[in-house]
Amino acid sequence: MGLLDNFEKGLERAVNGAFAKTFRSGLQPVEITAALKREIDTKAAVVSRDRVLVPNRFIVRMSPADHQRMDSLGPALVDELTDLVQKHAANQRFQFAGGITIVLHPDPGLSEGMVQVESQNVKGRVAWTPVLDVDGRRHPILKGRTVIGRGSEADLTLDDSGASRRHAEVQWDGQRARVRDLGSTNGTQLDGRAVKESVLEPDSVITIGRSRIVFRVLAQADPTETAASRIDPASPRRDDGGFWGPDR
């Protein structure tokens, strides 16, 4: 299964009934993924035999109407795109100079269905951001521990009768993660097997009741970096044929 197939499956969870009609016309999220992938492949620079550097800052321009539809998905879409850029680079053995930043920007100069990607290679610190993905929604993991359960006292509340009020917790020390069952009634599974406590690897799946929770670690740009190192979305658009649209 390819990266785009994985993206479409992840997006299917995010785009529920409320957004089902949103993507029947105009720009499709999977076309943004294809444009980002092409931008990375085109801009890959061979630095040495074992180092191929690719851009890590992206401006994705689209029509205001398309931007409004994409923006309705909230941060989950940008997180999904960041995750896929990260995986594509790893699969091709590409490297980044810093964390990944993706900005979706409305551009009145573009018609619906068109997308333009601009990129820069910017050196900077990487902020490894751990998240829990539940039904296409991303929940940041607190440093220390994040309690998952049905009760209101849980940090991540599940609407699931199969979950205990304080069912399990995810521990994060800034570099590594663990999952620990908190004596729940129905138990906790990790990648299909029952666990009491275990190390969490990226993309591993925690199952609690009927809920499927995916652990991800995103390589994002450190938010403490200065604004001077960022791409300005208001800067003039490039004119180098960098427009990509759906195949018609």
TrEMBL record:
User: Compositional bias of type Basic and acidic residues: which residue ranges?
Assistant: 235-248
PROSITE patterns recorded? FHA_DOMAIN
CDD domains this protein is in? Answer: FHA
Respond yes or no to whether keyword Phosphoprotein is given for this record: yes
Top-rank taxon of the source lineage equals Bacteria
- What SUPFAM superfamilies does UniProt report for this protein, alphabetically? SMAD/FHA domain
Q: Which organism is it from?
A: Agromyces binzhouensis
Q: What is this protein called?
A: DUF2662 domain-containing protein
- Domain (FHA) ranges: 146-195
Chain segments carrying region Disordered:
224-248
| InterPro entries to which the protein is assigned, alphabetical | Cell_Proc_Reg/RNA_Proc, FHA_dom, FhaA_N, FhaA_N_sf, SMAD_FHA_dom_sf
Query: Which controlled-vocabulary keywords does the entry list?
Result: Phosphoprotein
